[in-house]
Amino acid sequence: MAKVGFIGLGNMGLPMAQNLLKADFAITGFDLNAQATEKLAASGGRGANSLADACKDAEVVITMLPAGEQVREVYLGDGGVLAAVAFGTLLIDSSTIDVKTARDVAQAAQGQAFAMVDAPVSGGVAGAEAATLTFMVGGDDDAFERARPLLEKMGKTIVHAGGPGNGQAAKICNNMILGASMIVVSEAFLLAEKLGLDAQKLFDISSKSSGQCWSMTSYCPVPGLVPTSPANRDYKAGFTAAMMLKDLKLAQAAARATHATTPLGAGAAAVYERFVESGDGSVDFSGIIRYLRGA
Ligand code: NAD
Fold this sequence. Notes:
The protein is α/β, with parallel strands linked by helices.
């Protein structure tokens, strides 16, 4: 099995790397946080003491980092991935970042003849642990086919979205739908309450009619209606409001850069910004209903 350097072993990266270990890949992991690196070593991987150490013998490097700034630094910085890996190494960035950084880094990789894909995910920490993530992949056909066997060990649905950066484009468009739909589902339940319509009745009707969507049927913001909802455990994340705000801001930056018209996306970003500023950034994003109730 291929030797993999895994950089960024946080909430998502560690369980993803652990799933590759279970599939018999040899993983050398590195995180700025030494405790995260130690957790990988305790799971049967090798803990690297530097970025270069994680890249040294790697045939594939996977990164799972907070944002574009770290991805740019890790790949393009002094002693970064592009300087440290051997010729022929496949590069996979699964972080959620802005499309421009994804395309800049892919172009730099391509300039040095490295195959690279951007492969952001949806499915959250639960999906990372259960290896059921959805990967949205941007890159050329050869790079995608090389990445696919690894992605299949960490996820269930692997979609080739097009050329470099298109994985990130898919991710931010998807999450713009999700953020806006979670707000409007919450608004509908709050309006129903004011109108004397029972939440269960609205759910029974809307979940089977034209208002149905994932925010209603799989992640309903009202407690007691959908067993898997974070609403049932006081909105413990899950996918935090801060993460949703990050993705909505990425969507707005992309909309500005391309002159796309996204009034609902802009509204959703503004609503989540106020929710996060109120101190609830670590609450699950479906907790927006609490904010709307009080607002
Ligand atoms: P996290 O903050 O838990 O993990 C990121 C890790 O990267 C941290 O352990 C940090 O120490 C490490 N890191 C930062 N800079 C580094 C560097 N220069 N070198 C080595 N390590 C470095 O974040 P996460 O929740 O694991 O999310 C990772 C990415 O996945 C983000 O881009 C996020 O938007 C995306 N994502 C997260 C979720 C989720 O539910 N958590 C869902 C989908 C996508």
